[in-house]
Design a protein that fits this description.
This protein is mainly β and about 140 residues long. It has two helices and ten strands; from the N terminus they run βαββββββαβββ. The chain has a four-stranded mixed beta sheet with strand order 1-4-3-2, covered by helices on one side. Strands 7-10-9-8 form a four-stranded mixed beta sheet, covered by helices on one side. It has a two-stranded antiparallel sheet with strand order 5-6. It is globular.
Length: about 140
């Protein structure tokens, strides 16, 4: 039997009490491209190879029937975390950009492995991180 492998993370999701406000934040502050927009879900492209899903809080507490099959219910509450990859060269420009757009940087970390991170909150208080290579052994 061949070894089975996971090839990456396709999508991650956050939940928002105000989808239009969250969409504006991710488009205007982080420059993400909106792929789909609806009443219960908005979908963003991240680097044209990953997906960030923004669900309306409480919007998928029941199974969702689609033409291709059923999506099981899921949800989360509280402050979640997502990290986006940036280059080391862009780190200072990202910091300036966020500050210029009124985004409060909660923390800046220089990791012992050589990476750097900027931590800030989105409008739903989720912790967003911009991280450079050197954060983990694999990144």
């Amino acid at each position: 039997m061949p070894t089975l492998r996971i090839n990456g993370v396709v999508e991650t999701c956050l939940y928002s009490s105000d989808l239009p406000r969250a969409v504006r934040f991710y488009q205007e502050q982080l420059g993400l491209r909106l792929l789909e927009s609806g009443e219960r879900l908005c979908v963003f492209s991240v680097a044209d190879k990953h997906v960030l899903l923004l669900f309306r809080s409480g919007g998928i507490l029941k199974p969702l029937t689609t033409p291709g099959g059923m999506i099981p219910p899921h949800g989360a509450a509280g402050q979640l975390h997502v990290a986006f990859a940036i280059s080391k060269e862009d780190f200072p420009a990202w910091e300036k950009h966020l500050l210029a757009h009124g985004v409060t940087i909660e923390s800046k970390v220089d990791w012992p492995t050589g990476g750097q991170s900027l931590f800030f909150r989105d409008p739903d208080s989720h912790l967003v991180e911009l991280a450079t290579p050197g954060l983990w052994e694999v990144f």
